Known about the structure:
The protein has 199 residues and is of the alpha/beta class. Helix content is 27%, strand content 21%. It has helices at 21-28, 53-64, 78-93, 142-147, 185-195; strands at residues 2-5, 35-38, 71-76, 103-109, 124-125, 129-137, 154-155, 160-166. The strands form two sheets. It has a six-stranded parallel β-sheet, with helices on both faces. Strands 5-7 form a two-stranded parallel sheet. Helix 3 links the parallel strand 3 (71-76) and strand 4 (103-109). Helix 2 packs across helix 3 (78-93). The longest helix is centred in the middle third of the chain and has 16 residues, at 78-93.
Amino acid sequence: MLVALEGSSPTIRGENNRKYYVWNAYCETVFQDSRKYEPGPAAISMGGSMINIRKMANDACEFIGQYTGDVFLIGWSRGAAACIQTALDLFRKQQGSSEKTIIKAMFLFDAVDQDTSTSDFLNFIPGNVGTVYHAIATHKSWLDRRLFPTCGRTWDPGVKMNARNFNTSHGGIAGADAKLGDAGSKTWMWDNLKNEGVI
């Protein structure tokens, strides 16, 4: 199955960014009968927001619980942070249980933990994740690096991490910056999606 968690949007309520890479992967996946798309959070999202990291992760975990088989997560920005939150939630839920949900792979476009809906430190990826592909945007201003710091930079020793830097903006990494472009992030991520059998 594929759970696609969308990135930040400039609107107050959040939106479906149905033109960028998370949506593209959702449309192209081979898992047409077991896929879920979650809209992105609002420009400023907190605990009371209609869409935020906590609610996205809750929805993802509920959906995953309805299926068996390989689990794949893809996300951009706070949607990518919600992928990490989902992994943490599943990891905690299964402590002491004989049944384990393993996330075969996560595909992250510049994960950003810029949200007060969760108290978790989303820089750590737990050991129930097999492989992570993380496209990291490096063309950020001094202010952007502080307001939108990339998370998901530490992981359990059993996780296979594949991180790659791309000289584009936070939006560009997922196809949302026409001026800078994506610096090759889609080609790299699509190669990984194909190799993992997701598309």
